[in-house]
DNA sequence: CCTCCATCCTGTGGGC
DNA sequence: TGCCCACAGGATGGAG
């Protein structure tokens, strides 16, 4: 079992990290125009139907707004051009001066006004960037996202409808971005712990009260993560790898804590695999079977 | 449509 | 000390 510190050595970007990135980019970049584009690894724009379009579509475009939906960033440019970015497993965004040395794996670099650069750093290249027209955006996976977990959380009744009849584990359904957009493996486990629901429970087996608890846990868990990101956002150290690991370590209740005592009841946290992903839980606080 | 599973990729650390 | 290998995970796409 890898140690907690190794597991958390590089934070996987989830909704709070993406929202922090959105805020980080907004003020310095909105109103500026693209003066240069460099793609260091073609794989990063693999979703671009015509690769050469990535550069030509962005050059000269003025940034109007920086939006987010789920874990996707949407940079809205004039002429109806949208730059869709996803940080994948290991991506992060940096702002830098043009002369500054690039961090390793700075795979996509976009220059604004010849004064500031947006760099997408992503060693594992699970992330991507793509420049799309409104027509292309409408059929992009971002268009199939469910409501945003932070800004548009569905009511309990709608959430319960979405889970009705579903036999897949609730943990897997929380990770399904078409139902709710923004939860990843870490926060899904934290949400389930807070809701006192075991991740292996079939989605349709949750009663109304349990669905209500799961829904109610999403906001506080994400906002706690956002506060952690927001706090250290002031510190440029945030931009370096591992800069925030410590902050998260203290916050997590179950993720990565197998063998350690539950912060609520002391029972050792356990790990199992659900949908090919780790699920961490407390079997006392989150009974695997619904109590009668 | 739903569920399950393989695939992409590379830094990291555990084991030998 | 150094090498090897398993592991981590978000999204996608195919099979059943």
SSE order: HHEHEEEEEEEHHHHHHEE
Summarize the main sheet: 4 strands, antiparallel
CATH class of the largest domain, please?
Answer: Alpha Beta
Strand arrangement, largest sheet?
A: 1-6-7-5
The count of DSSP E runs of length 2 or more, i.e. the number of strands, is 10
How much is the radius of gyration in Å?
A: 20 Å
Tell me roughly what share of residues is in helical segments: 25-40%
CATH homologous superfamily name of the largest domain?
A: MutM-like, N-terminal
Q: Treating each run of at least 4 consecutive H or I residues as one helix, how many helices? A: 9
**CATH second-level architecture of the largest domain:** Alpha-Beta Barrel
